[in-house]
Amino acid sequence: MFTGLVQAVGRLVSTRTLPGGAKELAVELGRLKIEPEIGASIAINGVCQTVTQYRNGVATFCAVEETVQRSTLGRLVTGEMVNLEPALRVGDSIDGHLVLGHVDAVGRVAQIKPVGTAQYWHFTMPEGLKAMFAEKGSITIDGISLTIAAVFADTFSVSLIPLTVSSTRLQYLQVGREVNLEVDVLARYIDRQLSVLGGGTATAAQAGGSGIDQNFLTENGFI
After folding, report:
1. How far apart are CA 13 and CA 74, in angstroms?
2. Which residues contact 103 (CB under 8 A, 6 or more apart)?
3. Which stretches of the chain drop beneath a pLDDT of 70?
4. In angstroms, rounded to a whole number, what is the distance separating the alpha carbons of residues 194 and 184?
5. Of 40, 66, 82, 116, which residue is 20 to 30 A from 58 by alpha carbon distance?
6. How far is residue 31 CA from its own chain's centroid?
């Protein structure tokens, strides 16, 4: 479990393809204020990974085939900077939102637009996830906990303060670059519930349910 508050930007020092398509990643942890034990969890660009080795400030991880297919980890190149966050501990402050480190899809930077002191970043919205994006809802982008500013037909936007850009790997990204996306966990389960009840079109009463359907959630401000 994570909060989406990036604690350090590290550097990928090496990558190696393993049998079956998995990837071994060696990451220099930079200013991350921990010396992780073997088996510890660290989010790399929002992907929960397990430390398999650690020596002299460099941690090694194994991204299995499912992770490679679902995220950008398998396409990272040596020297690339990555967002890092160690797993949440009991008693830690939750200043972002609850993040699982389970990436749902990959999006792309569609536009970067300065507005006053802020920057509005637009990202592509994967077709199968559109129902889970809502204005003022939570989204995790490359491990960064953010609030959705607006939702459009095929994109969504977030408003970033300069500190968020300068203290994360966003400072190295340009239009067209891929990012990992994790939707809010509540949206994920609501979408699944609506699917079970008939794809979000049948009422719960018709499905023998509780009376909660997509119209109910929209009218009451949940989506």
Report:
1. 14
2. 46, 47, 67, 70, 71, 180, 181, 182
3. 198-217, 220-223
4. 16
5. 66
6. 21
Rounded-to-integer distance, Cα 136 and Cα 23, Å:
35
Beta strands in the chain (DSSP E): 8-17, 23-28, 41-44, 47-55, 58-63, 81-86, 105-115, 118-124, 138-141, 144-151, 155-160, 178-183
Whole-Å CA distances, 212 to 79, 118, 183, 200: 49, 38, 21, 10
* pLDDT in the model for residue 222: 66
Separation CA 95–CA 98 (nearest Å)? 9
Q: Which of 81, 59, 58, 62 is nearest to 19 (CA)?
A: 62
Q: Is the model's pTM score more than 0.90? A: no
Cβ distance 108 to 123 under 8 Å? yes
